[in-house]
Specification:
1 helix; four-stranded antiparallel beta sheet; Immunoglobulin-like; 118 residues; four-stranded mixed beta sheet; mainly beta
Length: 118
């Protein structure tokens, strides 16, 4: 059955991004609808499991919003104002509601990378 998950790694400190705030939104013709907001656990993942389970999966456009700057500030990293990377917004599509969509993020105060994981 399909589901959506994410995993964030802090590549500055070489660890999961525990405590980072993340928002999942659905993008539709009327704008954005927030599905959930969460704080990543000690493994850098959603403590509640998948962001969308089989029942919640639907074909469409989605957005993940990662509060990268706030996370690094909370870790004691001194960032310039404004921060070079403050919020990472990832727009992606789900074309198969039965598929597994994993959206990892590798982040530092100066860069980020993502891909469709397995």
């Amino acid at each position: 059955m399909g589901h959506l998950s994410t995993h964030v790694l802090d590549i500055m400190h070489g660890c999961p991004a525990a405590g980072m705030a993340v928002t999942l939104q659905r993008v539709d013709g009327e704008g954005l609808r927030t599905i959930s907001t969460l704080t990543l656990n000690g493994d850098g993942r959603n403590p509640g499991g998948p962001l969308l389970d089989a029942a919640g999966m639907a074909v469409g456009r989605y957005r993940l919003v990662f509060e990268v700057g706030a996370y690094f500030r909370a870790r004691g990293v001194v960032l310039p104002e404004p921060a070079f990377i403050d919020v990472v917004v990832l727009d992606f599509g789900i074309a198969d509601a039965r598929g597994h969509y994993h959206v990892p993020l590798l982040a530092s105060p100066w860069s980020y990378s993502t891909y469709r994981g397995s």
